[in-house]
Structures are given as structure tokens and as C-alpha cells.
Amino acid sequence: MKRQASLVAMALALLSAPLSAKEPAPFTPPASAPKLIVVVSVDQFSADLFDEYRKSFTGGFARLQQGGVFPSGYQSHAATETCPGHSTILTGLRPEHTGIIANNWTDLSVARADKVVYCAEDESVAGTTHDGQYTVSDKHLLVPTLGERMKAANPAIRVVSVAGKDRAAVMMGGHNVDELWWWNGKAFVSYAGRATPAVVSRANAATAANIAAPQAALDVPEVCKPHDRAVQLGGGKTVGAGHFERAAGSASAFRASPAFDGAIVALAAGLVQDMKLGQGPTTDIIDVGASATDYIGHTYGTEGAEMCIQLQQLDATLGSFFQMLDSTGVDYEVVLTADHGGNDLPEREVDAGLPAAQRAKVMLAPAIAGKEIATKLGIAKPVLFGDIPNGDVYIAKDLTTAQHKAVKAAAIAYYKASPQVAEVFTAAQIRATPSPKGPPEKWTMLERARASFRAGRSGDLLVFLQPRVTPIPSAAGGYVATHGSPYDYDRRVPILFWRKGMSRFEHTGGVETVDIAPTLAHQIGLPLTAPKVDGRCLDLNAGGAPCR
């Protein structure tokens, strides 16, 4: 099987002088604590994909299955998107408390013409927009991450966050990070004014060279051959039988390929070595956002040869990463999870015997629905706003009380009349629902909505499409499949813990990604003070100290 260049070799090539350590603060983890915490988020890695391929893994995923395996972890909220999901992993709090209710939301009060706000931007910066021309910021994350809490307790602790997406790096790293890097489409970058370490410069040079060279088609592993079948999407477009061959200079094809994760993880490995993470007097933490699986899922769907090849390659990449960590001699603990799951493209689902799978009608888009409602009510201005035909819908603020009431009633009726819509909740209904408790697999739809509702930021209405209705009306564009629903194919993700010497076990009951932060805090003896987390500590060591 053709693989990318050795991750260990790539990391060694990125080495530069170590950074000086800081003076330790009063908090010191106990001797039993790991010296380095490694948190890996695989974007769009559903529990369904983990279940499907877990027996075929021989590298990093195979190693992680020798530790604590929670195959039914939950991003328990309804807003199963990248930004909300990453905000839960290391805060221990659900989106209702992190404030990250979606990738994008509408704020009609912002000064700029573009009223859509991106979760990881500062919309107050003049001349910016939410979709490309924005300034990356952590301002919308309302709570601290585990790394922040660690650093507040002891400034000597190093916190590092690396990802293929800015929102992943920011939401896992938080507000006080020693190194934070993300891919901007051309290079790994950070906040303006930050110095660029030599290891990042070398990573950018190596990645640029990778993109500049053509990529031959990757071999198809035996386990992937049953998936290697083209699916017609209309207009001559097919997916399902791609092997990641790409032309020289195609940055977009690079991003939706296994090579992207190779570059992300190689940079993380280089920073571990360059900064000598885990070799100081206390416990360090590095967060790694592997983003390629999400781009591949969006571009090709989840059940073709492309996704199968990607997961086999990522397995090898993670295996090399862990071997590099072994070579440092550092006692490290790994947790791997995902920000959300994903649903396959409806055309292939129909072929697989799921006749309910379909694409959403264009008429469900808030802007289009709003035009029809405004015309019917005789209102000569936009009345509805929203990002996609699944999620938060906002009613215009510059309406009279009577108009607002009429628009709300008309919008509820409009969406409920569609056979593609499962639920329409009002903000008042959601706000009146207590924050959910108990097993996440048993939550009602309203409770799932409550877990990602933030008054003042969430919509006036929340629309849920029927199961397997993809909110991408046409496959003619770049994306053919997505996620974002309140259903378990989008909510359920694996949670895997591993540390050398840890006894293997598997817990099949439902747990949540918000349980990760309190579990890791327990491992290093860090008390979690205010804000109180939503998650609970998971017992990883039978007979050890009980979780607090």
C-alpha cells in the first residue's frame, strides 16, 4: 500500500532549538500523572465509521483500542457541526454554555452589512465578512478549556493547539495558548503578531512542496475494494471510486486527501519535539485537529473508496505519531474523539436500501421561505434569516409587534407543512426546557435542542429536517454530503483513551464528549473550579482512585 512519507522522518526534519521553560506555579500534578496529554479530534469521524473499520486497523487506531474504548460517545447536542463540537471536547461544557451554538449564526445587531457571524471571528473588525475575509478570534468562546485551567494553575504548563481548521484549533486551545496554528488554505498560520517558530516555517515549506508536486493514485487496500464503486450524482459527476490522484498545485484536492492529515500531524509532532513537550517539571497538553476526514466526507460521502482509504491512511499516520511519542520516552496519555459524525450522500443511501434519503428542497432555505411569507403578509423587506435549511431561523428585528407575531406563525406553519421537516421549535419552548440530564441516547429532540441553545445568540425558531434529509439541495457544487442533524448518525462518536500500562476495557453505554475534560483533569489531579462542567469523570483505571 502506498503511504505518505514517514511521519517520524517528517517530524525529525522540522526540529529546531527547544524553547525555554517557564517558572513553575504552585500546582504540580502528582507523580502518577502523565507528563503529556495528547488530544486528537478527527473531524467527522462517526461512531458508525469506527464500528465499520475498527477490525481493519493496524496502526494508531489499533493501539488506541488497547486502552479505554467508549464506542458510543456523544456530541449530545443538536448542533452537530465543527465549531460546537470542538467547543465541548476540552471545556467539559455543552454549547448552551460555551456559547458556540453553530459554525455560523445571524446577529442582526452587528454594524457591518454582513449579519452572519462566524464562530471563530471578530466581527467588529472593519471590512470583514464571515466567509473568508475575517479575523480569527476566540471571543465567542465563553468558557475556559482544560489547557487554560491548567495554565492558570501553573504558568509553566505549555498549551499547544494545531488543526486543519481555525475553529478547531481555537475551540480546543482556548484563550491562553503557547502555540496555536491552523491551515488557512495556503499555509499554517496563527494570530497576527505572533512569532513563527522555525518548525512551522519548515512545515510550511514541506507542505508547499507536497502541494506543488502531483499525487499519484493511492493503492486500494483489500478492505476498501467493496466500497470502490462509482455513484452517479447527475450532470456527469461521480464519487465513490476516487483514489486521491491530484494534479500539481491543487491545494483544494490536497485538503480533501489523506496528505492533509499527514501535514497537520507532522507539524504537531515537530512541535512536540521542538518544544520538548512533556519533558519539563509538570504536565503539558497538545490538541491536534485532524480535519481531512471532514473534507473527504463532504466531497465524496462517507461510504465510498475515498473514506475507506482515508481512514486506513490516518491509521498509519497516527501510528507513526505515537511511535515518535514513544521515542521521546515521555509518559503520555492520548484521548481521541470527534467533533461530530456524518451522513452519507443520499444517492448512495437510496441504492443501499434507505428510500427516505433525499436532498432538501430549496424552498426550505430561510431566505426563500421568508420571501414567500413576506409577500403573503404584505411586508416589503426580508423577514427570515438563517444559514441553511436545518437549524436556527431568525426573524427580522425591525418589525412591529403584530408583524413579528404574524411572521412567526406563518414560518411555523410553512415549515410544518413540509414533509421534509420533522420538528419546529420556538425559542420560548427550548428556553423553558430544563438542561438535559441522564444518558444522552435517551434525550428527546427538545432536550437535544436545549443543549445547544443560547439565549441572545440562537434563533427565534429551530427547524429539524427528517432523518436522512441532506440540507444540500444540489450535488452540483463542491459538497455532496454533510452533517448537522440531531440524529445519532451525527451525534454518536468514538471516545478512546490510551496510556502505556493501561488495562484494556470497553464500555458500550452512552457517554459524552463533555466527559473528556473532567476525566483528564482527574488524571492530573487538577480541581475543576467555576464554571462547573456539564460532564462527569470517567473511571479509566479499575481499582484506582475514584473519579471526583
From TrEMBL:
SUPFAM superfamilies: Alkaline phosphatase-like (SSF53649)
The EC number(s) this enzyme carries: 3.1.3.1
Xref: CDD domains: AP-SPAP
Reaction catalyzed: a phosphate monoester + H2O = an alcohol + phosphate
Enzyme class, UniProt record, top EC level: hydrolase
UniProt cross-references to InterPro entries, sorted A to Z: Alkaline_phosphatase_core_sf, Alkaline_phosphatase_prok, Phosphodiest/P_Trfase
Signal sequence annotation: 1-21
Cofactor: Zn(2+)
Cofactor annotation remark: Binds 2 Zn(2+) ions.
The UniProt record lists the keyword Nucleotide-binding: no
Function noted in UniProt: Alkaline phosphatase with broad substrate specificity.
Protein name, per record: Alkaline phosphatase
Organism field: Sphingomonas glacialis
Taxon lineage: Bacteria, Pseudomonadati, Pseudomonadota, Alphaproteobacteria, Sphingomonadales
